[in-house]
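Field notebook, page 324. I keep forgetting to write these up properly, so this time I am using the form the group agreed on. The chain and the ligand, tryptophan, are recorded exactly as supplied. Prediction of the bound pose follows.
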Amino acid sequence: MKKMLSVILAITMLMSSILLLSGCSGAGNVKKIGIVQILEHPSLNTIRESIIKELEANGYKDGQNIRIDYQNAQNELTNLKTISQKFVRNKYDLIIAIATPSAQTVKNETNEIPIIFSACTDPVGAGIVTSLEKPGGNVTGTSDAVSAEMIMELARKITPGIKTIGALYNLSEPNSVSVINDLKNYAGNNGLTVVEATVTSTADIQQAVNSLTGKSDAIFVPIDNTVASAMKVVAETATKAGIPVYVGADSMVKDGGLATYGINYEILGKETAKMAIEVLNGKNPGDIPVKLMTDMDIYINQDTASKLGINIPQDILSEATILN
Ligand code: TRP
């Protein structure tokens, strides 16, 4: 009897080590997912939370059948690089890169590990993919592209008479540059003038806003990570000076910007997670087209409107989401 037990024990041990070696055991099946986010701000947090929620809703639970390693680069490019290198060195199964700088950095570190980017406004312009329809390689993801034209049409309905628009953005963020190019086109076609104030870090922002309030009728902020992280300062300074700030994302309206025609970042997070799941199930990222968000909504900060003494037209208010 004793002998029998030890034989069974030996067989069981042998079998479990074979399973472990072949990667068929429970532990071997746990996929490692790295999530890298450029910095802490409301839109990006919303995206990340929504991704994790949607993964869970589809049966991918952190600590159970997947392991999520979330890292925030605190707006430092050197941190982005260190984080990306760690993900690659540890041979993660999938990397989710939130915002353009994260995606650019991760892409530079690996041609093999699948990368799903999230909320990259202009992934082609940023050199992350060569085509939206057929990204190719190990990369695909979601874009939060918005229309400068739609935002400007809204701006001119809310504050008619705008002639000069101050563009506030970080010149080294391709996600901003592409929207500002659209803004310049729109301005050119509509007899408006764009004056620019570019920043390289949040430290430049106060001065940049000051320079614009004196010479523009409205300020336009694209979906810029650097400006978004100091959006409260931008809104406060401009509003005090009586200048409306039109922005690219809902979180910037929440932080005091007057209005946007923007996308829903919770939905974008969900779409990002769906792509991640397709890839976890074996699909090649390069074969999945980049997903653009087609539903846009008007977001208004009513408190900012009152401070500026602006009455938002009723037809706009009735379809807008009020964010304060
Ligand atoms: N679209 C930005 C990028 O491409 C990231 C982003 C998403 C963002 N939501 C935002 C930036 C809100 C500023 C504010 O990098």
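OBSERVATIONS:
- The chain has a mean pLDDT of 93.
- Residues 148-262+297-322 form a domain with the Rossmann fold fold (CATH 3.40.50.2300).
FOLLOW-UP: compare against the apo run.
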